[in-house]
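QA checklist item 7 of 12: single-chain prediction sanity check.
[x] sequence parsed
[x] length recorded as 484
[x] structure emitted
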Amino acid sequence: MSQMRKRHITRRSFLAAAAAAAAGTTLLNKDLLASAHQVKLFDLRPGPGTARLVTKPPLETPAWTFNGSVPGPEIRVRQGDRLRISVKNELAEETTVHWHGVRTPHAMDGVPDLTQKPIAPGETFVYEFDAVDAGTFWYHPHQRSFEQVGRGLYGPLIIEEPDPVRVDRDVTWVLDDWRLTSTGAISDDFGNPHDMAHAGRIGNTVTINGSIPDQFVVRKGERIRLRLINTANARIFGLDFSDLQVQVVALDGQPVTPHAPEDGAVVLGPAMRADLIIDMTGAAGSRNTVADRFYRGQDYRLIDMVYAPEPLRETVPDWPLDLPANRLAEPDVAAATRHEVAFNGGMMGGMVMQEMGGGTSDPMGSMMDMMHGGGIWFINGVAAQGHMMEPILTLAQGESHVIRMTNMTAWHHPIHLHGHSFRVISRNGAPTRYREWQDTVLMAPREIVEIALVADNPGDWMFHCHILEHQAAGMMGVIRVATS
């Protein structure tokens, strides 16, 4: 199950991708060409390296890294800049780089055999695209991502607003977990059947920015913009900042109405991001614990916010919180074309299908029939067998669309659409409070979520669960954006 069957990209596919790329470049750049900044050059080298994942005693654990570090170097540019990123593959296997959440042209999306040939060992591929949206994004391979990401290949991509919200510090926390053996090595059991059919590869060690967190020093009166990125294969974080004053100001890179986190916890499924504004109101020398409380009965302390002896100021500043909106086409929900997508499969999948009216009188038999077809997870009854697939949906370019997604499984799924952001407009029939723009939406078991978008970026785009073991075991498809 751990190795998806590969199909080679065809000349016809390359020509279609090139046409889509040209159209996409025109579409995405039209509002930026007049004020485009200089080209920013970067070099990334995916290859072997080490990470400090064990502190007592301190050990250097062999890992896969970008430029020798985990996470890889933070790429930070300003909105409107053009990025030119040269990626030289120093791994012993093929790889790609996907720019998660960035609305790139199709040919720059980094999906092997769909948008490009994989980068062979020793070869170089140059990615070039404009920083269309300001926000918090990240990069990672899309080739055997369940192992390559799990071994440490990822990094933050920050696109600053031309006029950023005012804060004292802008800080990025890249969250990850690792499955380590008793000797401190990364466990080699990638893609095992249990992980594939259940919650995915959940590790036993959590890191912030590639190391075991201890404390984060703050000062009374300080205002911090904290950018959270969940790069874990499967772990969902539910961060409780105790009595700190926290406001969520962006989700998946897109501004949202500032608000306190629902139920007091910032919940991030794999690949999701959140920008927080946190005001430090504690006394000098005090501390606040940040705890992860997502999994029932498995709470743990993530890190302590520790106040320095000297305050920055006695009271927190009264600066505006609202981020400037990115230029996203607003979907016309009333006039939108509507589509249905169902996710099924996994352990207990037949039982849930039967409960929700999507199964047969023999739900286990139905699930076994699908699994015998070569997959564990399914989108509309089809399990992916590679990246080159017939589309599960075709969306007319430039038109509004609503996709009603039903999670007919017993597990959470963070569902990611490449090349676009979408509004989350309802959950289980109830309108969402903030109609947030996202590119990855976390669906609970048995939940129904509606998303709305204008399909304005042409090409064939991956649509998949970002629990990477679920993706590898079939929960992946293609949505085509095409001229009508």
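[x] summary fact logged: The longest strand covers residues 46-55.
[ ] second reviewer sign-off
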